[in-house]
Amino acid sequence: MEKSLFDKYGGFSTVSKIVLTLYDRLLEDDDVGPFFDDVDLSRLIDHQTKFVSSLMGGPASFTDDHIERAHRGMQIEDHQFDRLKEIVAEVLTDFEVDAPDIETIVGAFEARREILIEKPNVN
């Protein structure tokens, strides 16, 4: 039986360290950092740890509806989402996650682009 990425890389202990590093970098970034100015970071990091765990085949689960509700009204643009993916890939590389596994995880973020990016109202 093949291990999940969650198990392969050490479970919640490693994912927690990855997410903490991720938020250190996101907060420093001019494109995505401002999204976290008025956010309860400890709560967000807890949720994000569970979310990334779920993307890696861990025990937590998130629905796309939950993700959409959590990001509704944030006016996230494509370039900001692209920057988020770049930072995620950089952090995973620093944690020595194998390149194909990084593609899988970043691909899981990409699969949610349409529910996170607000499209302009064309009416």
Automatic annotation (TrEMBL):
Keywords: Heme, Iron, Metal-binding, Transport. It comes from the Bacteria. CDD domains: TrHb1_N. Coiled coil: none annotated. Gene3D superfamilies: Globins. It holds the Pfam family Bac_globin. The keyword Disulfide bond does not apply. This is Group 1 truncated hemoglobin. InterPro entries: Globin-like_sf, Globin/Proto, Hemoglobin_trunc.
